[in-house]
Amino acid sequence: MYDERKVPTMKRLTQIELMVVISIIAIQASMLQPPLNQHREKAKGSTCMNNLKQLGYAMTFYAQDNGNNWVPVLEDASNWGGPKWYTLLRRNKLLVDKFINESNSILRCPSESDFTKVDTYCYNYAPKSGMTGMGFSLPIHRLRTPSAIIAIADGSNWWTDVWKVPNGTDGLVTRHANRANALFFDCHTAALEVNAITSDRLREP
Fold it and tell me: Which candidate, 96, 84, 109, places its Cα nearest to that of 57?
């Protein structure tokens, strides 16, 4: 026969005990937050590096059909508002992707949260003395050490050159744990600390 007296009853928490439990949960959550943020930023850095590799593939396909030249940084040097390198890759059907200021676009570093900032990858327009990509394709076969020269990287504008300092106007930007992700002209990628972004990484003599 059912006996209500034998049914165990749950003790209700007092308001103070409830506050203690909530405080413990909050402390544990705050301890987990930094590792979670680090993991999230590491994932963004990996996505950024993959973006640069895909851009390298697109440049390589273009070079195969254009005398081992990479696309111009700017189509017309007299018109700075004209088609830029990423537009030229699209035109040649080498880049089918979202627009540059859309989330998850390979033309956009995922660590740049400001969507009013259009250009997050910069292209080195003068990797060798006497060579310019402003209005001209870049003849990368003229580079003696393409593995040492930065081609495209985390940046503050769509172009850069040897005169631009890191984290300055038109320079490379260290978005990933104080490093800038970079694609070199041999199409390998690397994460560079500020002291590794030197003039000899941006231009051959």
Answer: 96
